Fold these 3 entries.
Entry 1:
Amino acid sequence: MSKLPIAEADVQAYIDGALPAAWRSEVEDYLAAQPEEAERVRAYLEQKQALRALFNPVLDEVLPAHLSALASPPSTAATDRPHRPVLARWSLQRIAAGIVVAIVSGFAGWVAHDRYPQAESLARTSPLSLPRQAAVAHVVYSPDVRRPVEVGAEQEDQLVAWLSKRIGTPVRPPKLGALGYELIGGRLLPGNSGPVAQFMYHDATGQRLTLYVSTENTTNQDTAFRFAQEGPVNVFYWIDGKFGYALSAGIDKGKLARVATAVYDQIEHK
């Protein structure tokens, strides 16, 4: 008896851990015979793990008092009927998790942003800080095997012209070859109130880092060079006028600092 073909829905269910054990073995046999497909699945699993590490701490944060109050019954009863807490059937942690999923989905949906423009609206209603935005974008796109960027480095002039036009100001990727990083390419992403640019680099080992460029900082006067750790991602970021820059990677702070300093110097002297 021949085996049933493995569909994309089966692969995605495997990634989500939603397949029965018997069918998981069928998918694993399929992946063992398809090295390229197995590499794609591995990248998605790493991406999923990175996103979980990035946002799981949110679930441990203390709930604001006004949300905690919603889970408590009224202090006095107006009738003889027993009162149920307003959120008795809901776990507040699940609500928090849902908010996180919504934020991440807003970024992940921009894999096909031309077809899903509502993702930009979601990003506007759930604003993130500059380092958190950059870290989310990094963990969503840097593991992608087949299409980590929209326009490759071999078309750098077209990439620069396109991104500059979309974000409304000239923007060009720094040269990092002296530090061992070569440009892969770039893509357009949604910010809190408009488009932002992401440039992606890799080194000889395949390690990737991304430079996130925003023009949404007209009211931000903090120009300091800062460091943030967002889950598994280290981020150096700074403000220069209306520009916000954030360099993200899964490498140690010292190595990333050297790259960030080179990026900063090039941008300051452009």
Entry 2:
Amino acid sequence: MPLSSPHLLGLQGVPAEDIKLILDSATTFREVLERPIKKVPTLQGKTIVNLFFENSTRTRLSFELAQKRLSADTINFTTASSSTKKGETFKDTVKNIEAMKIDMIVVRHESAGVPHYLTKITRANIINAGDGRHEHPTQALLDMYSIKEKLGRIEGLKVCIVGDIAHSRVALSNIHGLITMGAEVSVCGPATMIPVGIESLGVKVYNNINKAIEEHDVLNVLRIQLERKAGTTFPTLREYHNYYGITAERLNEYNKDILILHPGPINRGVELSSEVADGPYQIILNQVTNGVAIRMAVLYLLGTRP
């Protein structure tokens, strides 16, 4: 059964059947990544453009590797070498790329809504690799896959998203996806980092990290986005770590197995202590590996959709 939409713009409104299909397909591709020859001919003949208007390392490399593992032809676009620097409009840039007979566009942009706009001006399948403060669906999907891989389920788990909720597209996609799949979702952070009215999305708000640790099965700890001026919402990084940092002392106090996720890159000594970042509770590098499998699954399901 194909996905219900020809695009992946976010997880808001995406049915549970679609998410389950992506997660199940990722399991197949996760096995491919363990083979001596980590390549399948699934998307041979397809041309995919990585349209990145915003800096990225993990997401861009993960998508590129996923595309190559599926035998697709890949074109990488960066603003530094594009005609937008010469005054060409975004629309004209995209239309010129489409004229080269491409099939799919993976887009990352600092402005929310750009992936949706692309669906209006091109016939290609669009995958959102992060748009402004809106969504980052493949990150949430790989987070959910990693949780299920480790704990065997998503439904019924208590998951708390910790940190810079206000600036995070990862948080919003995780909230939509996890709730759809039956998890109980909370957020925790300073009041200045929690959007007003976020409870309307079906989440509970915590301001005490110790209580959040005590009452949850999973912590998805977000990076403090200093490039988005997130550091202006609290006095110092040291104070943030003192009040909301995940440390071994805090975890040991409750003597429980708790799963720690982080989308990276980590600000060590801010969101996580080094002891936690390298410790037994975290699955950060598993997330990176699973990210390739999830993106292979999304590319396959959209690229072979009737």
Entry 3:
Amino acid sequence: MPHWFAPARPHWLLLALLALAAGHVVPARAQALTEYQAKAALLYNFPKFVEWPASSRPGMLLCALAPDPLGPALDSLQGKPLKNTVVSIARPANPTAAQACQVLFIADADNLDRVLAGLGNAPVLTVGDEEGMAARGVMIELIREGPRIAFKINLSAARRAGLTISSQLLKLAREVY
């Protein structure tokens, strides 16, 4: 199993299944995933454990705001099947345009308050990868723990946006706010 998916908790099987479902797991003797391939795979799999309000836009639009370190790793998800639809990738120009996304990756903690204010309570699953983002209002914060990627969940932020996060995903979180 690639070292980026070695979980910090004994729930390794669910994370392995998440990775397999994304089609990103390679045989143990082949090259390991890069950090950004692993993060893109998580972005692809998180929606499997999230329910959006019935009034949400159809489809599955995965987005990243600039700066976007995921680049080609995120682009590789274009057209993949997910939740009875296919994935589309976008890089919205601003937070207001990002309201059309189902999942939004945010790498810039400096502008986080402006981004979250621009999203308001839109049903957008926000994912960030800088320390402290979950405490500031991002719904899922990806964290590095040595060679592993774990995550924290801000359940209050998800609920304000009308999203329901599965208990299976909540069990895997390092911390739930």
